[in-house]
Structure formats: structure tokens, C-alpha cells
Amino acid sequence: MGSAQAMVPALQELIRRGYEVVTFGVVDTPGYKVFSGAGFNPKSPNNYGQTTLTQSSMFTCLTIENPDLVLVGIATPDGNSSEKLALGVATATGINTACIIEAWPHLYLENYAKRDFELYKMVDKFMVFDEISKARMIEAGFLADRVVVTGVPTNDQLTVLRGKKKEARREFREKFKIPEAALLFTYAVTMNVKPGEVDIPHDDPRYMGFEESDVVQEFLRSVCEANAARDVRAIIRIKPGRDPEPFIEFARELFPGTLVVGSEHRDGNQIICASDVMVGTTTIMLQTAAFLGVFPVSYMPSLNRPDPQIANTLGVVRALYEEGDLRNLLLDVATGVVNLELAMSRLAQVNLPTNATTKVADCIVSLLA
Questions:
Q1: What's the rounded Cα separation, in Å, for the pair 330 and 338?
Q2: pTM over 0.85
């Protein structure tokens, strides 16, 4: 979904320049919904007489469409995905390719780059967030002349939103009846957790030493304690399209009144603006919160490796690694021991690259020359 969101402003810019743009996805997937919500009429395998998504069906789709360029994001799921299938067919048939990476590429490089390196090394141009991202991509083995620093188009929108943060905060809180004086702690979910099930098998190299289901429950218990000190409200923000029931169950048991927000409110940035503290494990929403001036906390208790997240290692996001650290921090915020404005000022500041939408569109056009 993140890649689709990052693509949308650049695709709209290409249309303004007179280029024909066709968006593609599997019906009802997050990316498909993003394209649809942005005013595109995305196509799916069904539009090309295909009922399933396979290498053969993707070949048929691209043969019928006959594009000059295929733009993809990074693929995280195992097995076939529309990104990997489209990229595989495009590189095999000589179609120009480009890939946009919507954030610092730490987790992609940590968990998926080795798996997909032979495929993605064929991409003609990677468009990345900044020079740090480019350096990490080169260290991972990608060719330097194929990695271009453009910035991410969604960050152009963040720059505008930052100037309207107070208005966005007020609108969201009024909509969900959250008093302005109340502290709002929001947890942004990365995994689709289910009670009693593990997020990732513990023998999987991607297992980081903790279960997000445990982290969510600790968050809610901590909010419950903090609420004894002052009026505290909680939101759990799940990824659109994910099942909210496990989180509703946690909330019902641990902190009744918690707002579980997903598909019915897709604007995650407005949720960030309304919040006082943004909590998560590895979600990109923490990086976004830092850019928007909302205190971001990455909590990964018992992390079993050096922290791979660039935002954490740079000090852009407050990182906590010991069990109980989150509870202590939220209680300190609620009791006034921690001043959020002062805490925010002590985090490292990152300047957003400017004019990313134009730069991405220019890069794509250069491949068509």
C-alpha cells in the first residue's frame, strides 16, 4: 500500500504532462484501493481475461497493454506478487522498469533484498528517499548508477500538512469526540496479529525477538495505568484491509474505549496529527510522525539484533528496547515527568527532500527517451 501511495502524486503529474497511465492491482488489495481512492480506475487480471495472478497471466496482461515502462514498489510477501511478476515479465521482454522505495530501505534490505536480489538488480532505476538510502542500496549490491535520489512524493504532501497540523488535529478529535485537553496515545500496527498465534515463526530469520501482539497488550495496559494520572485516550491504528477483531478484543479486555481505526479512516497522517505520542515497532508511521512533529516511539523489547531501522539509529525516532520501557515512558508523559515539546526537540531533525513529485516524474520520463 505504501508504494502505491508514494506513486500516486507522480502518476498524477505524468498525466498532467500528457502521458497515459494505467494502474494495476488485485481487486480489494490495499494498493488497488489506494489507486481507486485517488481517482484512478485500476485494472486487474480480470480486465485481461485472466482469473488468477501468475507469471503467465502477467505476461498476457503486459502483452495486451504493451507499456513503455513498468513502475513497481518493493515486494514484501513471500511467493508471487504483482510487483515481482510484473518486474519479471518486464525485464525478460525488454520493457523499461523503475522502482520507488517509499521510505528508508532498512527493513527491505534486512528481510527481503537477498531473497529478491536477482530480480530487483535488473531494475533500470530505483528512486529513493535520500543519500542515506542510496548508500544503503549500494552497500547491498545494487549498482550506483541505477539508484537516484528523488525524495518520495508523499513527503511533498507532508510538508503541506505540517503547516495545517493544528487544523487536522482539531478535525479528527472533534470527529471522534476526543477532548483537546486529553492525551492521545496511538499505536500503529505493523503485523496482522491474532491472539494465540505468532507473528513470525521464531526460527524464521525475520523474527526480531518479540511478538507484536505482546507489544500491543503492553501498550494498552500502560495507557490504562496512565489514565489514572490524567485523561488519556488510546487509538490502535491497523492497516486498512486488516482484520480489526483481535485488536478490538485486546482493547475490550485491557482498556475499554480504545478506538480501533482501520479501513473506515484511511488517512493515517490525520491520526498522527491528532496524537500526542505515536507508538509502534517498525511502522513507517513513526518516521512520518517525526516529520510532522509528533513524538515517535519505536518499542522493540528483547530485540535480537542490532536495530536495522535508520530512523532509530539516527535518533529521529525514540527507540526503546527493554521490557517495561514503554510503560515507564507513557506514565512519565501522563504525570508530566516528560515534557513532550522538550523531548521532541531533543530528537534528530531530518529535512524532507523537496519537489519529490517532480523529480520522480522526471526520472520516469528520462527512461522513456
A1: 9
A2: no
